[in-house]
């Protein structure tokens, strides 16, 4: 059994909305080139790099409406799109081959999840995945098909009884929440910028799941400009407790890195160093609770050169049990590639120079702190539904 299965092939770069769109596939190419130059994908790294094929329509239709899948196919074959289904909008413009490109990403996440569930890999990573906004009947927020939701549905079909999904993207994981709103077998946890200041406008603390599944939806809505100490404190104050209470058999995580201070479309102020700490904590939770069964997905992240490659190379390093020291210098071969494409050098090292320290939630609640009030609102709303005391860990 490999330590980690990494889904990657150049064909996955075909998910491309065109010039000027924030979801630039070069972010993925640069990520994998950086991971390779850091030695994370080579012989001896304990990594199997595998490609992905588009999943069949019947697999997509475990989450998506048949009419929607047909609309995506029609649009990707040269049609005009269907704005009522989110196709052909500014966020989700139509491009030729869109169906196959999006279904291939789903194929990668399904492969990753089943490889872990079946014991063919301890961990699996699909950084092209994490398309958490796609709804059963519509595209949304750069997302055509919801690979995370389809992968979780496949895990349930394969016999999983409890699946935990934790999303640390700056945007609320609304599509995954929608799919599993009434399903007590799936815990969805999203730590994100408040919907009052950021798309999609949802993910408030009182969203806790449907009838028969209350407590299976957990949302932490953080104020704009939350930085490392508050972001990590929020994760610490919510995620370990709710995931432990749920007792999952497998952990699926979404590592959108758009909470970073340099991301051009969000309002959080998090560093690479804090994002590394968060990934490490989620990895530790998988080893503590699920026998190590962990599937890590990508997601948002629109600082193509300066943030995404470093954040996601760290995820690969953590998953392969070869974490990259924060002080590591960026290899020159990667810098040459960046200069050739962008006419400038990328960041010099794998750190932003932040210590990413935070005050643990157990140290006490501060009612005068905006982040603490946000965490407290979530604990008050959902902890009792999980048999937890909102006042104590």
UniProtKB/TrEMBL annotation:
Taxonomic superkingdom: Bacteria
Example of a GO biological process term: epigenetic regulation of gene expression
Gene3D superfamilies, per the entry: Histone deacetylase domain
Molecular function via GO: histone deacetylase activity
Alphabetical list of InterPro entries matching this protein: AcuC, HDACs, His_deacetylse_dom, His_deacetylse_dom_sf, Ureohydrolase_dom_sf
Plastid among keywords: no
Domain Histone deacetylase, chain residue ranges per copy: 21-316
Pathway: Ketone degradation; acetoin degradation
Short name of one Pfam family: Hist_deacetyl
Xref: CDD domains: HDAC_AcuC_like
Alphabetized UniProt keyword annotations: Acetoin catabolism
PANTHER family documented for this protein: HISTONE DEACETYLASE HDAC1, HISTONE DEACETYLASE HDAC1-RELATED
Family: Belongs to the histone deacetylase family.
The protein's name in its UniProt record: Acetoin utilization protein AcuC
The organism of origin for this protein: Cellulomonas cellasea DSM 20118
